Amino acid sequence: MPAPLLPKREVVDRVMAVFRERGFEGATLARIAEATGLGKASLYHYFPGGKEDMGNVVLDVTESWMQEHVLGPLGEDGPPRQRIGRMLKSLDALYDGGNAACLLGTLTVGDSRTLFRKRLQWIFDAWIDALAGALRDAGSDRRAARERAEDTVARIEGALILAQARSDTGPFRRLLRQLGDDLVP
């Protein structure tokens, strides 16, 4: 078997960019091959299970990122406002201030929604649970914290969709600035 042409992480990053831009269905092997500079046979070297394998590897990377940059900071010691601020700063960087689409959002459409449902549900539930924990630490009761966390995640995801649809990052950036004050006055 020939040696890989690119480090796997670089290939995964390029596949992730195609999924983010095109969604799972729109990320054809031809588009992925073009983005990676690899032929289809080489793609199968990296991802023996084909496109589904690519989706799972992309979700592995996403889960790791979420653990490090969102769930971890929300669960740390310290004032809840600062913990939430770190989460918001990380999300702002991940989504390039609203210029980049949400990979999770693109995977909730079409066949990928069913294919990756449990993993997507876990990621969103973990995010909501971690944010609710920070809100409880800030003084909200369990039910209110959970509802506010769900609403916050929905607002963030909605602002990303709006930013993409309108090519206008203003609402996303404004939302991130307001959320710190809205969540922990």
The assigned CATH architecture of the domain at 55-183 is Orthogonal Bundle
- CATH class call of the domain at 55-183: Mainly Alpha
Structural class: mainly alpha
How much of the polypeptide forms β-strand, as a percent range?
under 5%
Characterization of this structure:
It is elongated, with a radius of gyration of 18 Å. The protein is built from 10 helices and no strands. The protein has a domain at 55-183: Tetracycline Repressor, domain 2. The N and C termini lie far apart (59 Å). The longest helix is centred in the middle third of the chain and has 26 residues, at 50-75. The mean pLDDT is 94. The chain has helices at 8-26, 29-36, 40-46, 50-75, 80-94, 103-106, 111-115, 117-137, 142-166, 170-183. With 185 residues, the chain is an all-alpha fold.
Kindly list the characteristics that best describe this protein.
185 residues; mainly alpha; Tetracycline Repressor, domain 2; 0% strand
